[in-house]
Amino acid sequence: MATDDTKEAAIRGLHTYKEQLLLEIEQKQADLRSVERSIELLSGNGHKAPTQDNGQRTLTFSGPPTSRYSGLKNQAACRLFLQENADQWWKASQVAKELIRRGITASSKHWNPAITGALNRLADKGIAIKEKRAGVFRYKFSPADK
Predict the structure, then answer these.
(1) DSSP label at 51?
(2) For a Cys staple, 96 with which of 52, 53, 115, 122, CB 3.0–4.6 Å?
């Protein structure tokens, strides 16, 4: 009986993973269509872009809105975040949450440790300051690097 429950749990997990992969494929296909359309419009090979009543072209995008953080790797995103918030000390978990809130997609299931590692590398390079405060490491953008 225990093996049946484990087997069913594994099957449910695989179905969930399959749905996640299908959603990722749909998103990538939408991104690809958007890039292809942009290439057509910029090269002049495609159909005319929709125009407003005053004759100006209007561009429509079918993807999710992008932010300054879209497409950045963990370390670059952490650096940008610390630069923008240079007057505050941040815990790694706070930085991880803020990056997700600002449009970064968690790149692994171990997102928080990945951000901690990126912050530690920034501290090693002298870009960020790392201090242990009240038993917790906190990070701040290095004023010498502004």
Answers:
(1) B
(2) 115
